[in-house]
Amino acid sequence: MTRTPESHVGFFKTLNALAGSRQLENQISRTFKACFDASPQFRSRVLSLLSRTCNVRLRQNAEWECLAEIGHDDGGRIDIVLRAPGQPRFDLESKVGSVLTLAQLRRYRSSTAHRRHLIALTKHRPEVPRRELRRAGIQTMRWQDVHRVLVETPIKGALDRFISASFAALLEEESMAYRSQLSLLSIRRAGRLLAAMSDKESAGASVREGFATLDSLSQLLSDVTRDAQDEFTSLTTWKPWGPCYTPHNGESWLEAGLWKGQMRRASYRSLGWGFAADKGGALWFCAWKEQGEDYKEFTKDPEPLMSRQGCLDRDNVWHLVRRALRDWKVK
Fold it and tell me: How far apart are CA 299 and CA 320, in angstroms?
């Protein structure tokens, strides 16, 4: 009989203790703690993500401690606390199903000391606009971002690889993973499918993969729309449109955006972003502004939007749109 390493025993004991847990949020918080304690690779990737999110420097080789469901002065509790001597402290308030209110976060924030960072860690986009959270000194992160850092590059070591894969699988099971990692090849295939949709003579596009990619791109465009309204206060009263498929001047578009005004009288303003393909299937990303005869456009080949791992980086897409909106003097 093969002897099980002590680290495996401790890890599985922790997981077994979760059996019968009725609250998913508690289960995920405790499982997160088990993974953080048992795997240096898991710990390193989570800390790197928090460092970027909060824009702080930290030492990953410090004696980091993970605490789950810690009591708070107001009678509540913080789901996850990460701390180490001489390092920033991270208080993570996790919300998977229930609503996370700004008043609740402000109570936690009121007692946080210097070098403490409060992060709203959610399954869905926070109901509270990000700009309000930032004003209150609260950062936001999604469980999907945790999943992404665990799977985007290979992990060395059998134990570390098993733990990260197990937690990633748990997040996937609970629909807390971005729908797919979009490679440049898959995006260009989706471009050929877009072109084929407006050409009855076209055939042979990879339909299953193509539509799955287009579905993921649609989700990304919806996120960009929400990000735009969160970032620019003047857009909070604008109405979202899309994502939708639109043939236009021989090109095929998957697009979304915001508009304001009276469309029947053609006295409206529109902002949009999306992916377009020509008849040959060549694909590009575009953001545009339209107000009467005033039309401005910013286009980009998708390749610079990819991450170092070769997948479409959602942050790169949003940064491009944000730069265009700032150039267009959107407030």
Answer: 10
Q: What is the pLDDT of residues 34-74, one digit of tens each?
A: 999 999 999 999 999 999 999 999 999 999 999 988 776 65
- Residue 194's closest CA among 204, 186, 205? 205
Amino acid identity of residue 35, one-letter, is C
Which of 156-165 are b and which e, b meaning 16 or more Cβ less than 10 Å from the residue's Cβ?
eeebbeebbe
Q: Are 120 and 139 in contact (CB under 8 A)?
A: yes
Model confidence at 193: pLDDT above 80: no
pLDDT band at 81 (very low <50, low <70, confident <90, very high): very high
> Coil, helix or strand for 121?
strand
- pTM here is 0.67
- The answer to whether 65 touches 54, Cβ cutoff 8 Å, is no
* Range of lowest pLDDT (115-129, 153-167, 197-211, 306-320): 197-211
Identify the structural domains of the chain with CATH numbers, from first to last: 6-173 (3.40.1350), 184-327 (no CATH)
Contact 237, 260 (CB under 8 A): yes
Rounded-to-integer distance, Cα 186 and Cα 182, Å: 6
Q: Rounded to whole angstroms, how far apart are CA atoms 214 and 229? A: 23
User: What's the one-letter identity of residue 150?
Assistant: L
